[in-house]
Amino acid sequence: MNEKQWVGEKAAEFVKDGMVVGLGTGSTVYYTLKRLGELVNEGLSIQGIPTSVQTEIIAKEFGIPLTNFLEVEHIDLAIDGADEVDLHLNLTKGGGGALLREKIIAKAAKTFIVVADSSKLVEKLGTFLLPVEVVPFGFSVTERHIRELGCSPEIRLKEGKPFITDNGNYIFDCNFPDIPYPETLERKLNMIPGVVENGLFVGMADMLVTLGEDKNIVVKRT
Ligand code: 5RP
Questions:
Q1: pLDDT tens digits, one per residue of 144-156
Q2: Residue of the nearest CA to atom 8 in ligand 1?
Q3: Which end of the chain offers a freer environment for a tag, N or C, measured as fewer CB atoms within 10 Å?
């Protein structure tokens, strides 16, 4: 079993009967989805809201019943991965391009659990390129404004063309080498016209499921 599987499966233990569950995106939360599928098969009654089309497909394959925000008003628990987790459980997310729906769902959740193998743990955010989702209209102007905040944005490509998010937008991956004040940067980025959302999740995570140095599961709470 690899680290992603350990933490992914562990997080599924926090899901209880009757819950509406936000279903994250990525290779770590994949194991949470797989485990939830098994539990549903054994009789667990939940409804999931996926953070991406990719997760929607996987959840359906695993037999997890799905719902949406027109049918439910709140989410009891959201579980999602991260690209970086700092000491205060602030996150960088969006490596898989699902940051916008991930943030909407994390914000709507009463409890937000992050699952991350030990390679994701950092003292300060900034090693991973920060994803910023922008609307295609005027994206070169938007890029200039992002650059003015101190990075060199690179448009994310897929097969030589701009990667398109589930929301029809582009992503700039931005090399902010060191992010001393994530909350300030999060706000400044989102004030730029054309920016839809960025991958900084500040003060949102309630719990982190990871592995300690001794390779035992650690559950940290904020
Ligand atoms: C997708 C994300 C993922 O949660 C993040 O990239 C972590 O992915 P993985 O578990 O595959 O390392 O933010 O947009």
A1: 999 999 999 999 9
A2: 26
A3: N
